[in-house]
Amino acid sequence: MGDSIWRDEVEQALAQYNPEVIVLNAGAAEMTGFEGDPIIMGKEDTLRAHRAAPDATIIAVHMEAVNHMTLSRDELSDYVQEVGIQDHVSIPADGEVISFYCHGPPFTAAHFFISMSLKLALLVFIAQA
């Protein structure tokens, strides 16, 4: 989803495209002077994404990536356990590679590789006709 906050447009896009995998920047980053008003999604948004696309696997990234992130992997892990969505959310460690094979639009099939590098996610996909 990139650096975004939860908006109606995000929910509409999830409903329209019904993704199998969602890569969610979930570090709850804040800017100095705007504390308490994150500029990217956080733990509650992870739950919102799950509710909007309950069959999708959510890959939560961007925690601990730069100094203005306020949500840690451990905090998010505790939260997803608490709300019971741990089977739908993956929180990769630095250096971890996750691979998915997905079907559906816009490609007949696509193979996704997610590699955690420098605590930021690198998403590469190979489309297969």
Characterize the structure shown.
It is built from 3 helices and 6 strands. The chain is of the alpha/beta class. The protein has a domain at 8-92: Vaccinia Virus protein VP39 (Rossmann fold). The strands form 2 sheets. A 3-stranded parallel beta sheet has the order 1-2-3, with helices on one face. Strands 4-5-6 form a 3-stranded antiparallel beta sheet, with no helix packed on it. The protein is globular. This is Metallo-beta-lactamase domain-containing protein. Keywords: Hydrolase. GO terms for molecular function: hydrolase activity.
Layout: helices, strands, pairs:
Layout: H1 8-17, E1 21-25, H2 43-52, E2 57-61, H3 73-82, E3 89-90, E4 97-103, E5 109-117, E6 120-128
Parallel strand pairs: 1-2, 2-3
Antiparallel strand pairs: 4-5, 5-6
CA radius of gyration: 14 Å
Distance between the termini: 24 Å
Average of the residue pLDDT scores: 78
Number of helical segments with 4 or more residues: 3
Largest sheet: 3 strands, parallel
The CATH architecture of the domain at 8-92 is: 3-Layer(aba) Sandwich
The helicity comes to: 10-25%
CATH topology of the domain at 8-92: Rossmann fold
Structural class: alpha/beta
Low-confidence stretches: 107-111, 113-129
**Helix and strand element order:** HEHEHEEEE
Record the strand order, biggest sheet: 1-2-3
Question: What is the CATH C level class of the domain at 8-92, in words?
Answer: Alpha Beta
